[in-house]
Structures are given as C-alpha cells and as structure tokens.
Amino acid sequence: MDAQPSPPTTASQLLPVLSLEDVCLFPGASLDIVVHQPAQLAALDIATRGGGGVLALLRYEPGSGPRDLHAVGTLARLRSRQATAPLEQHVELDGLERAHVLNLVGADLLVAEAEPLPEGDEGEEWGAAVEALARYLHAHPQLRGFLESQRRSAEPMGWVNLACQHLPITASARQRLLEATAAERCTKISRGLDALLRKEQQA
Q1: Which pTM value belongs to this model?
Q2: CA atoms of 49 and 45, how far apart (whole Å)
Q3: 171-179 and 182-202 are packed helices; what angle lies between their axes, rounded to 10 degrees?
Q4: Which of 59, 62, 53, 52 is nearest to 19 (CA)?
Q5: In terms of C-beta density within 10 A (0-12 exposed, 13-18 middle, 19 or more buried), how is residue 7 classed?
Q6: CA 139, CA 122: separation in Å to the nearest integer?
Q7: Which residues contact 114 (CB under 8 A, 6 or more apart)?
Q8: Can you list the domains of the chain with their CATH numbers?
C-alpha cells in the first residue's frame, strides 16, 4: 500500500541534500531519477538510516559546484532505491512540501536546515489552470495516464504541480514555478500550457 503524504510541518528540519540537475520535484508528485555522484549516494544512505527524508534542490547549472544550489526546494520522502550498477542507483522520491534553506553545512555531502514554505490559497486561479491542463491533455491523451501514475496527492494543486514538473519547459522555468505561491503557479501554468498548445498546433 502506498505511503500517505505526511501532514504539513512548520518547524525547520535538518535533512541531507539531494542535488538535482535539469529537473525539479514538486509537492504531491513523484520523481524517478538515476544518481551516481558520491555525494548523492551518501545523502541517500543518510536518508535511509534517518527515516527517508531528503531535501531535493536544483543546481544552478549542470556540473556546477556542490553548493551552487537554489535556496528553494522540496522536502521529500525516499520511496525506493535500487542499485543498477556498482556506483549507480535508481531512486524514486515523493514530494511532500516546498522548503527554503536557512543554513547549509558541508562541502560535498551537504546537510540543510530547511523551513517549510506555505503554499498559500490557490483561489480562483486554480480553475483556469485545470481547464488549461484539460485542454493540453485532450491533445496529448497519452500523458494523462502517466501523470496519474505520478500523482501522490489528492489535493487540488496536485494536477497543477504535476504539470509544472513534467511538461516540456526548462529547468529554470520549473524552478521559478516551484518558488511561486500556489495562486501564482496556477496563473503561470495556465498561460504557459495554452501558449505551448498554440505553438504545437501551429508547428
């Protein structure tokens, strides 16, 4: 049986940092990645021994220094890990909630003190975002089943966060969406999806 999302927390937490390249993890979504860097593998070892919690942070640029990370990321639970080579593992993460880094300790293996960020009320903007997503999925029916398999939350923002995480936009654009409040994210994704659909239809 799938693990249920943890209730939102308010106090800061100390968590190992799992750095990401070219992808972001959003609350209520799942992320499958292959990790091979020693610091990433060490972070997973700590998470496994400490209850499965990690802080997923996007690097500013692929291959940049270990501390060149965005300050806003996602508190996540390690769902599974499987060795695919002697120094390579396939990992599945479940996003729980956004968080802001207060302090970062370490050189290669990093531990962060992170404070959860409130999502805010998505308000009326959520309806427009879901309608835009429905239009996009109508044009790409194969996506719906995939997104459903990646959904880890029944909250209204779940579909919007899945769109932010998986649709074809750049990593920097995803990071800006992750840093936005729920209402801002809804507005941006609804405009972005409609613009993307128009571009695809004109191609």
Answers
A1: 0.86
A2: 6
A3: 150
A4: 59
A5: exposed
A6: 25
A7: 12, 13, 14, 15, 55, 73, 75, 99, 100, 101, 102
A8: 13-116 (2.30.130.40), 125-202 (no CATH)
| pLDDT, tens only, 25-84 | 999 999 999 998 899 999 999 999 988 899 999 998 876 777 899 999 999 999 999 988
Please answer whether residues 34 and 84 qualify as being in contact, where contact means their C-beta atoms are separated by less than 8 angstroms. yes
Inter-residue contact 139 to 203 (CB < 8 Å)? no
Report d(CA 186, CA 160) in Å as an integer: 7
In the predicted model, what is the mean pLDDT of residues 150-179? Answer: 87
Instruction: Output the pLDDT for position 185.
Output: 93
Residue 54 has which token pair? 């990690």
